[in-house]
# Entry
Amino acid sequence: MKKLIFPCVAFVLILASCGPAAEERAKMMQSANRTADSIANLIKTSMDYAAEGAGYPNQVAVPAPTPATSTVAPTTTVK
# Structure
């Protein structure tokens, strides 16, 4: 049992110490920054449209539904 523990611990430590290369980390950071900037621009654009009181471009206004009226005449019951 003891003979198995040391190689397993050494293997795990070696794997943990190996991380992505510096170039890969830089690519990941660029991708993360680009995504964060895109989200920030989307939120800013949405807030600007909301502040102007205008809808989004190419948005069609939908009229509010009117209350339904009954066309059936009231009936009387016969006793």
User: Anything to note?
Assistant: Helices lie at 2-17, 22-52.
